[in-house]
Amino acid sequence: HRLSASLNKLNPDLSPEAIYLVIEEISRDRSSLNPVVANREIYKMLRDGVKVLIKSEDEEVFETVKVIDFDNPENNDFFLASQLWVSGDMYKRRADLVVFVNGLPLIFIELKASHRRLENAYKDNLTDYKGTIPQIFWYNALIILSNGSESRIGSISSEYEHFNEWKKINSEGEEGIVSLETIIRGTCEKRKLLDILENFILYNDSSGPLTKIISKNHQYLGVNNAIESFKKIKENQGKLG
């Protein structure tokens, strides 16, 4: 329902038939694919739009349907679900926090008690979820693990050692009171989340199986600082800094 409403809002001239075709394409079963391949398929649709064939009496035309409005974050529907039950083929699992954008589960957050090792969130919980409810990760943009005092961010294909800290909220070096606040404000604020989704994710198969890579904190801040400096190149007399 949320996806349908969002598609209508972002594409007001789209026919009900086209809306149906987009939802059908995004939600079709991808269980036969490697999960990272399935994730890449959907990611391309989230970033670039969904191409659907529209038939009329005298012609057939392809239209690209926007799924997310990256330029205007407030045009999108953001929803946070807590303690969400998800059914797999054989088991049900309860996710701590899932962030939906336009009805699609883009952020998966696994929380542990402060006295528990963060690595347990990966080994005991996330690994199990990826095996029992894999369909929720087809849509996933990023995964956050936290025990409050220690928090890390990674992707569907990241091993635990490749989950990284996010130590700064912005280029001014602002930090939250605890690491969970820092990582939430640094990656889940609406504009930042859509920026990371659109510009700071890539897939790589140059050295083996397909992997999904999310930029690190300093890379995200550094690239955006460089872009802002470039915009002010005349004011800075050609010095990018």
- Cα-based radius of gyration, to the nearest Å: 19 Å
Structural classification: alpha+beta
Proportion of residues in helical segments: 25-40%
Distance between the termini: 47 Å
Q: If you had to describe this structure to a student in words, what would you say it looks like?
A:
The chain is of the alpha+beta class and 241 residues long. It has seven helices and nine strands; from the N terminus they run H-H-H-E-E-E-E-E-H-E-E-H-H-E-E-H. The strands form three sheets. Strands 3-4-5-6-7 form a five-stranded mixed beta sheet. The chain is globular, with a radius of gyration of 19 Å. It starts with a helix and ends in a 10-residue tail after the last helix.
SSE blueprint:
Layout: H1 2-10, H2 16-27, H3 35-48, E1 50-55, E2 60-65, E3 78-87, E4 92-101, E5 104-111, H4 118-132, E6 142-146, E7 151-154, H5 179-187, H6 190-199, E8 201-204, E9 211-214, H7 217-231
Parallel strand pairs: 5-6
Antiparallel strand pairs: 1-2, 3-4, 4-5, 6-7, 8-9
Summarize the structure.
The protein is an alpha+beta fold and about 240 residues long. The protein has 7 helices and 9 strands, in the order αααβββββαββααββα.
Key words describing this protein structure:
241 residues; alpha+beta; five-stranded mixed beta sheet; two-stranded antiparallel ribbon; globular
